[in-house]
Structure formats: structure tokens, C-alpha cells
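Example 3.
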Amino acid sequence: MYALIDCNNFYASCERVFDPSLNGKPVVVLSNNDGCVIARSNEAKKLEIKMGTPAFQVMHLVKSSGLKMFSSNYALYGDMSARVMTLLGDFSPEVELYSIDEIFLKMVGFEKFVLHEYGLLMIQKILRATGIPVSVGIAPTKALAKVANKIAKKFSEKTGGVHIIDNPVLIEKGLKWTKIGDVWGIGRRYAAKLEAIGVHNALDFTLLPKQYVQKEMSIVGLRLQRDLSGLPTLDLEQTKAKKNMAVTRAFGKNYDTYGEVRERVSTYCAKLAEKLRREDSCCSQVYLFIHTNPHRKELPQYSNGVTIKLPYATNSTITIIKSVMGGLEKIYRDGFSYKKAGLVAMDLAPDSGRQLAIFSNEDPRHSTLMSMIDRLNRTTYGRVRFAGQDPIKTWKMRQEFRSNRFTTRLGEIILIRC
DNA sequence: TCTGGGGTCCTAGGACCC
DNA sequence: TCTGGGGTCCTAGGACCC
């Protein structure tokens, strides 16, 4: 059996832990730059606020419906996630951290356990230790555990937050209940395609001929189909080394000049290099893209990208900025209002096992310099910058509604007044 | 005015090798 | 006149996830 434990409305729940007055009120958390809604409490869902709604479109609900709005606070969410996952890891020897708010547990050798009670115990323990509410789905396969988890959450009054699918009758019931678009692994495109041929729920999908699924959805669809039918196919996955690492951001405003875009891209380079160093990694290629705002249909649109080969595998900000600037010159066009740029580091390799080139290699002084810069920036970010970065602006995100970083900054710890 | 960020996997087709 | 067979690697594009 597999268990999937998922934190309910995770980001919104994190905000509530440190401000219980938010309980019972509609809460939303916004994306970077306070752009759009990326998390909602149940009350916010009831207000029909959809995932991805632009923040300015829900602003009026603050007054009219008591909506509470938060900028995203990843320092808080990341730390809370680590606490929850560590505790849940104690419930099984084999786990897979699936996302910031979900974890799979493999339940082998638990035959003597009453799984429903075991699930309730998880919920109690996590709630008491962290204040985060979670739901538990248990089933013979991962895809079915996902289904079970949705049911546990949807009917929480009845299930107490735990649902177990452990026989063919419950499998069929669960599959029938799951709309095709809600199936794990079926996105918008496939959902539309499947609806068009009369496949409306997960059960319909399991009954499709294998050849059809293989042809239209490749081996991925086939595996999913088996797993949903109750034949264990998808197993826990090992955490593997990352293949890509990205820094992509929309700008706070539109930029019309090369100088402004160049400044942003330099700053993103510095961010990316720093991220590489933090993970003891380096890269030998970087993909750079820039584009205008696709939502502003009345403005001329432009979008382009370029892959830049670095002279050698590196994580030096100096080398990366120098190479990426060459790429930017190639794709930048005058006459457009730019809204977003991004960098993706590719061909990642561990810093220690770096492949040396024959003719040219990194100036050995870079690595010493970089670790010193990182040290200086650790306490006050932006203390040391590169010449291409704006000395004042550097890295300022719009974050009007951010809560305190209660668990990771001593200066922002919660205050209790008597 | 204002619309996110960071990832993964699979497949087909082209270039190239012997 | 007649032009093979088997393989690898890389990339772009399409799908998906949270």
C-alpha cells in the first residue's frame, strides 16, 4: 500500500498558524511580485476565487468580504514544510518527498496495523506539532492514493481526513467519482481530448483500450492507466540530482531600454550563480529568454531565447554575466516593452567533480572571491553587487503583504503580549 | 496600473558513426 | 541499371506536476 499525505491549503494554513484570527476567514496567498493568487483557504474557494486570478481582480473582496491577502513568504513555507515532512518521515521507512506539501509513504509490512487509525495518528501528530492540517489517502498504488487523498479531503467531516481504498469495490467507486480532469497526470490538453471521446471520469479512462492510450498518451499514459486500475506500476522515486536550475522573473514594470533589461539580466545572473554555489553545483550552458507582456495584446509582442555555451563548467558570477551579456545582445530588439526575463542553467554537474577543459579554465581566484561575496551577502543581501547591477534597485520584489519569517529570523519571531 | 516560478519526462526526427 | 543495416546522440516540442 501507498499513503499520500497532503497539507490542506498549505500556504494559507502556514499563515494561519501564526495568526489564528485568520481561522474561518477567506485567505489567499499571492505569487511573486504580488501578481496572482496561488493558494486559497476553503473560505476563499467558496468566494469563487480561482487559482491564478490576478491580484487586482480580487482586491475589492478585501473590503466587501473580509478577504485576507498575503504576499508569498517562502522562507516560512519552506521551513514549515521541512518540519511537517520530517515528522511524517517517522511513519514509514520508505518515503518520497513529492512536493513542498505532499509526501508518499510506502506501507510495506504494515499488515498488522489498522491503517485508518494510523492515518488519524499522523493527522493528530502534525496538527499538534506544527499547526498544519493534513489529509491522508491510502491505497494499493500511488495514483489511487492520490484519489483516496482527494476523497479524504473532500468529505473530511465523514472521513476525519483519512480515506483508505483497499478493495475492488472502493477502487471502482473512487475512480467513478474522480473527474477525468482531476486525475493525477491528466492535464488540460488530455482532459479535453478524452472528454471529446466520452471519457468523463477515471473509471472510463481505465476501460480504454491499451493501444489507444499508448498511441495518444505514450508510455506515460499507459503506466498511469495500469496504476489507476490497481496494478502497482509507479513506485517511489529516488531524489535525483537536478538537471536544470532556473531564475525567471517578471519585472516590476515594463522596460523599454537595453540598459534596463541588461541590469535585470545581470541581477538574474548573480542570483543564478549564487543558487548554483549554494547547491554545490556548476553548469556549462545557460538558456536566456526575454519577452514582452503577452497580456497586453494592444502592444507589439516579441519573445526570443538563446542557449549560451559557457567556456567551461562554472558557477562564477563573473563568467556567467560575461557570457550571458553576449547572448542578450543577440536577442534584444529595440522598440518593445519588456516584461520578463529568465535564465535556465543546464548541464549541471557537481562543483567538486568539475570537468577540466584542455585550453581554458576558470581563474582559480574566482572561487575564493565568490565564497567571500556569499559570506558578506548572507547577513545583508545585496551588500556586494556586480557592476552591471543597479546599485539601488538590485533585487526588489513587490511584497506588500508579507507576514513575518517567524521560524527562520530571530528578529521576526512571534511576539506575545500579556 | 496590476496577470508566477520552477521543475520533469517522452517522442520524433535529424545528424552522425561504422 | 543497381545505392544497407544498425546504432547513438542531440534537440525541439509537447505533455505534465506543484
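Residues 30-36, 38, 52-57, 59, 72, 218-220, 242-250, 253, 293-295, 340, 342, 344, 398 of chain A lie near DNA strand B (CB under 10 Å from a C1'). Chain A has 15 helices and 13 strands.
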